[in-house]
């Protein structure tokens, strides 16, 4: 059985990770870590998880195989580096860092230690996006995320929200290689808050776009893909539409499918655990994740 630490027990951990982890106790002994004794006791009782501690240093003293890091982005570099230097595999929320030099350094360190460094891009594991990804002869890929009247500073919005559209677009695209062009576009208000952003990527065979609109009239996330065989669309990760010349079909997630399954969190966590158990490949390839972080950095740099 694996022994895995979990540091950072805030909203994302409680909503997306702990419910899944609690169902995997036949495979993993989870060790929760927070500086707040009351929160630790409450979450241990809620999810029936026995092991816990109150500091990261104490956590690292235990015979762990890996650690999940759900702390604020600004702390990722410190915690990830510490864990890798202790010889642990690491799963960390996106983004790994907003500093491209730190991202490159941490991936290089993980490679030198022969350890997995996996960034939590859950959309890659959403069943309907997996289905899109297996389509042949992709021509046009368009990922759009919209929010109603949302105000966020541009760097935060890009690394918090647009990073998903960029990463999903890269996941669905063929390997970019070196022969590609990118065209960033950003629209901000007078206070430096992002309103609209788009990244277009041109390759010899594909046209790819990732869009974030924070001043839309609706909250939506739409992935569309065109091939010679039709138009294929995934709406909010829950509905898959096929439109062809003589056929139109809609598939929705089964009623019994959990939200964490539909949104990719459950299969993502399972993929990481399976990779540890089988000495398998990183479920989020470093070269692809590096490109996602690089493009986010270029979007932020474009606005300055």
Automatic annotation (TrEMBL):
SUPFAM superfamilies: Glyceraldehyde-3-phosphate dehydrogenase-like, C-terminal domain, NAD(P)-binding Rossmann-fold domains. Residues 2-121 form the Gfo/Idh/MocA-like oxidoreductase N-terminal domain. It holds the Pfam family GFO_IDH_MocA. Residues 133-242 form the YceM-like C-terminal domain. It comes from the Bacteria. GO terms for molecular function: nucleotide binding. This is Gfo/Idh/MocA family oxidoreductase. It comes from Latilactobacillus curvatus (Lactobacillus curvatus).
